[in-house]
Amino acid sequence: MRIGNVGGRASLIVDAGAIDIDRASGGKFPADMAGLFECWGDFIAWAREGRFETGAEAFDERSLGAPSPMPRQVFAVGLNYRDHALGEAGLKELPTSPLIFTKFPTCIAGPYDDLPLPVGNVDWEIELVAVIGTRASRVSVEDALDHVAGYAVGQDFSERLMQLSGGMPQFSLGKSFPGFGPFGPWLVTLDALDETNGLAVECTVNGVKVQGSDTSQLIFPVNDLVSRLSHVCTLLPGDVIFTGTPAGVGNARNPKWFLKPGDEVVSTIAQIGSIKQTCVADPCQ
């Protein structure tokens, strides 16, 4: 099942187009994604019955917003792919616990929004994004995925000068400029995915493949991350987790490669879809 944010309205995405959830349910479920997460279990049960009062309508994919446009908490994970941790980052051994930081919610953007480039060195990081569907507090690894609404494709854009400035890294600030957290194009429920061999992950810049891996290479998989986070913070419906990026970031290249106005970044995860950002000069700088 695919659930999208079409023009600000929660919608089921089917081959024929989008089914407006509020209208199709006769008002039983809210029109906005934030409200829908608050009754996620009931919504999923209703959607699986397939008794809709209205049908699908064609829509412009450019109208898609982030599947969770106003999350209360946004978590992110560093050094969570084997090739990125041991290769690019130069670690001698795999970490025994995940490196967690936050992206501030105002960085969240839609799957096709332009990316305003601040002054500095802006880098790409394709990531599998998990969105919480039901409240999770101190859940086990075995039960953790029961609290996940679905997965999406994301980009953890990073301004490296800010991120690495000062005596200690400023991960949260360097990764929270406007537009630095796009994800989508929609939310795919886990029962619609075959993760037997992982989900292929690929990022291109101007058509050049810069990152390629699959989610089987995650050091800490999604269920582990959700469980660990829930033992510290209560995870709320609509919360977002950027789960880490594979090797191929611009900052690790020789010579280094950073984004500039006019560049096009396309991020694709198998069985989910693609998002695309066009880099533009920040009009405020």
CATH architecture of the largest domain: Alpha-Beta Complex
DSSP strand tally = 18
User: Looking at CATH, which topology of the largest domain would you report?
Assistant: Fumarylacetoacetate hydrolase, domain 2
Count of helical segments? 7
The gross shape turns out to be globular
First-to-last CA distance: 41 Å
How would you sum up this structure, described in words?
It contains seven helices and 18 strands. It has 285 residues and is an alpha+beta fold. It folds into two domains: 58 residues, no CATH class; 216 residues, Alpha-Beta Complex (Fumarylacetoacetate hydrolase, domain 2), CATH 3.90.850. Strand 14 and strand 15 form a beta hairpin. The protein is globular and about 55 Å long. One of its GO terms (biological process) is carboxylic acid metabolic process. This is Fumarylacetoacetate (FAA) hydrolase.
List keywords for this structure.
11-stranded mixed β-sheet; 18 strands; 5-stranded mixed β-sheet; globular; 2 domains; 7 helices; Fumarylacetoacetate hydrolase, domain 2; alpha+beta; 285 residues
How are the secondary structure elements laid out?
Layout: E1 2-6, E2 9-14, E3 17-20, H1 21-24, H2 33-37, H3 40-49, E4 64-65, E5 74-78, H4 82-88, E6 99-102, E7 108-109, E8 115-117, E9 122-123, E10 126-132, E11 148-155, E12 158-159, H5 160-163, H6 171-174, E13 181-188, E14 200-205, E15 208-214, H7 222-230, E16 240-242, E17 264-269, E18 273-281
Parallel strand pairs: 5-16, 7-13, 8-18
Antiparallel strand pairs: 1-2, 1-4, 1-13, 2-3, 5-6, 9-12, 10-11, 10-16, 11-13, 14-15, 14-17, 17-18
Keywords: Hydrolase, Metal-binding, Plasmid
Family: Belongs to the FAH family.
Domain Fumarylacetoacetase-like C-terminal: 74-278
